[in-house]
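Example 5.3 — AraC family transcriptional regulator
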Amino acid sequence: MRVLIAEDELLERKAMRKFIEDNFAELTVVGEAPNGRKAIELAGAHEPDIIFMDIKMPGINGLEAVEEIIRVNPATKFILVSAYDSFDYAKQAMKFGIKEYILKPGKKEEIVKAILRVQKEIAAEKKQRAEQVQSNQLIKEHLITKLMKYPIDDDAITIQKQFFAKMKSSYFLVVQVGNEVSEELIETVFNKSIEFPFIVNHNGDSYTICVFPSVKVDKAEILHVARKVQLELGSDSFVGAGLPCASIEDLPKSYQEALHACYQLERENNRNYGFVLEKEKHLTYRDSLQWLLEAIEKGDDMEAIRLFNENQDNFAQNTLDELYLYIKSIMIERGIAVVERTLSELTKPKDWEKFIKVCCLQIQDYYQSKQYIVKAKKYVRENFQQAITLEETAAHVNLSPNYFSNMFKREFGSTFIDYVTKVRLQKAKELIEGNNYSLKEISYMIGYKDPNYFSRVFKKQFLVSPKRFQQQILKK
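Solution (predicted structure tokens):
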């Protein structure tokens, strides 16, 4: 955390700086201000988390500086310092939400307790903000699934007004990415290429994007965005575009257009982005079947049922046999539990609708599990240096610990702890091979506070101690 010291007495400033640096390794003093005006200037430049603010300073006093700093950065925390035990000062401080007040000369115990309380408050607010961000993300993911199907309900309209109140038009893109494109790159491409706010729904290697421009857009502008996304993702990626809508009630149509366009682009493979071509209004039954099969494979129950109902009169019995066997095969390939319905039981259109819907929902669940696993793996890679737990990782991906544990074991064939250990030890090997740190330093860097325990775990995994492994590397 960054700390600023505002104090007009030079010796007082230097003493406070030394005390902080000697006792709080996690705090960094980013500046010293001899008066209120300089405190405001340094606060704007360094955005400190905590400011020690002397009340009585020449020119702009401490409380006036506090008011200005809070106006610009309300998240800043203050510890007021004063030589006067005045209720008036305390009352003004309370007006700004400041709870910490130290009388000069401050006792070390009082200063430590004040810093610890402020650190705890900052940590709690940071956690609350992170939870709010995650909650908002889940609400937005909920919104896009509602905007993909008719009818649009009041809940969707309320969420849109909450998060995208400036929307003047909206449209969908459906992106099919190539095999070698990482999730990190995809996220970067979307943020770089799409100017206006958007939300994303991810299923396997398919990404559905709903964009909310604050101005009216036309086909040319949407085509420009689709082209930018496709060029960034590479020649084996396809971007289907839907027409813009002035009202969110019409957005499911834009989604269907984008989805159809993406299917068409993949099938014809002579262009990589764009809208549905006019000739697609008149499809052969083989084209319709192909679209239906692709919709099922993506788990898109709404689109699959629509295509089935629109074309069932054109499907001969041998076509239905082919459809049934294909659905079974894609579920078996993915290890998804096969729906217990025989072909002979599917005699009516309603039977087929139920069968297709259940299969699509199971495929959706499969893709969703994959998405949770990807998020969990990313979280582990970013936090393995800490005392990471299954419970906090499950909370990060918004699942219960038991469900997350079972899903993780089903995916990797090992426990969550075993996976974390594997990630840590792989990083340890890389660090040892780099020969820039001692084994003790590496132990701490990968999340083990006990170097002896690290040595035992390493030897169990690689059948050689870290010391021996290091010696082998150095001999080469």
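Remark. The first strand starts at residue 2 and ends at 6.
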